[in-house]
């Protein structure tokens, strides 16, 4: 059967296959074939092939695959899985079931280097968790999001791929030339894209390993010259950065309220604040709004521009974001 294929040199074959899989362009129903120095990788639709691959598309006969393609087809049920780079994460209390799922993932067509099971909740001031390695041997990976790459180790830093859409929403509001301060930056999922938009970014985090990854990620995405990474408490830079921020990102939902006085000190004359909170469904935005107004006092006019439910956090609780404009009186 003739299907569209990406034709690529043998030495680039695996890298291109992984990129096509990430873009959901890989045709798992047909076999990859080699002919001479070229590899032919079937794709579902030529239009789905990422433009940055600069790929040559050809029509070619390809044999149909006859082995199971998904973990669900192997298991006979749909497991709960989460992808982060080439890591697949399961969340199972039953060790035997967790291992069964891991074995199915590794036997399937899912691009995967490691399968992990959550071994603890998020713990401590640095908000990391423990993991059981069910297959593979590493907890470091490269996550790709809206054209950016983030190297990280899930055993050493906090990172949630579920917030990709929310991060992109915030980043799209930024303008070139503004000064942004990411008060709890992690490995840079806000800071790096903000810098790519042309902002000058100061990014702080208590977790020194996260800051190491942040610096690496700024370099690998070509924005190291616009990102100042600070290992430590953002309150320690408030004096030297007072009044500098055109934009503040406060993504520490359980504790951001304790840093509102610092945010006000950092805010410039006209500052956008993205304040993340976790509140009960009965009043998800009120507590945050009141706390921001109290911290701003008479110094700033406070205008709430967006009230957004980011996701459900727990029964009857929401993770929310307030986009707030602080204008100096």
Q: How many domains make up the coordinates?
A: 3
Highest CATH level, the class of the largest domain: Alpha Beta
Give the spatial strand order of the biggest sheet. 13-12-11-14-15-17-16
State the end-to-end CA separation: 70 Å
Enter the CATH topology name of the largest domain: Rossmann fold
The fraction of residues assigned to DSSP E strands is: 25-35%
Per DSSP E runs of 2 or more residues, the count of β-strands stands at 17
Q: Give the biggest sheet.
A: 7 strands, mixed
Mean pLDDT: 94
In CATH terms, what is the architecture of the largest domain? 3-Layer(aba) Sandwich
Shape: globular
Low-confidence stretches: none
Question: Nearest-angstrom radius of gyration?
Answer: 23 Å
What this model shows, in words?
- It is built from eight helices and 17 strands.
- It has 329 residues and is an alpha/beta fold.
- The chain has three domains: 60 residues, 2-Layer Sandwich (Alpha-Beta Plaits), CATH 3.30.70; 68 residues, GMP Synthetase, Chain A, domain 3; 169 residues, Rossmann fold (3-Layer(aba) Sandwich).
- The strands form four sheets. Strands 13-12-11-14-15-17-16 form a seven-stranded mixed sheet. Strands 2-3-1-4 form a four-stranded antiparallel sheet, covered by helices on one side. A four-stranded mixed sheet has the order 5-6-7-8, with helices on one face.
- The model has no long low-confidence stretch (mean pLDDT 94).
């Amino acid at each position: 059967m003739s299907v569209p294929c990406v034709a690529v040199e043998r030495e680039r074959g695996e890298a291109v296959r992984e990129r096509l899989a990430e873009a959901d362009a890989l045709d798992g129903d047909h076999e990859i074939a080699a002919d001479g120095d070229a590899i032919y990788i079937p794709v579902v639709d030529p239009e789905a092939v990422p433009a940055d691959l600069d790929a040559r598309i050809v029509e070619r006969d390809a044999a149909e695959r006859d082995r199971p393609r998904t973990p669900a087809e192997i298991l006979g049920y749909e497991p709960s899985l989460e992808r982060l780079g080439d890591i697949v994460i399961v969340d199972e209390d039953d060790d035997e079931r967790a291992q069964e799922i891991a074995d199915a993932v590794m036997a399937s067509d899912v691009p995967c280097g490691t399968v992990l099971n959550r071994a603890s909740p998020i713990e401590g001031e640095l908000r990391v968790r423990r993991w059981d390695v069910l297959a593979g041997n590493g907890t470091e990976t490269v996550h790709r999001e809206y054209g950016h790459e983030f190297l990280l180790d899930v055993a050493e830093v906090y990172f949630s791929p579920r917030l990709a859409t929310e991060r992109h929403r915030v980043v799209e509001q930024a303008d070139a030339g503004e000064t942004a301060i990411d008060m709890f930056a992690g490995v840079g999922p806000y800071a790096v894209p903000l810098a790519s938009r042309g902002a000058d970014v100061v990014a702080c985090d208590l977790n020194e390993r996260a800051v190491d990854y942040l610096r690496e990620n700024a370099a690998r995405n070509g924005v190291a010259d616009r990102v100042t990474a600070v290992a430590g408490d953002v309150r320690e830079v408030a004096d030297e950065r007072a009044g500098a921020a055109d934009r503040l990102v406060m993504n520490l939902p359980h504790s951001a309220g304790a840093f509102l006085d610092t945010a006000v000190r950092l805010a410039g004359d006209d500052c956008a604040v993205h304040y993340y909170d976790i509140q009960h469904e009965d009043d998800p935005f009120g507590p945050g709004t009141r706390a921001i107004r109290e911290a701003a006092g008479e110094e700033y006019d406070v205008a709430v521009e967006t009230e957004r439910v980011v996701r459900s956090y727990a029964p009857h609780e929401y993770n929310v974001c307030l986009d707030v404009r602080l204008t100096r009186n």
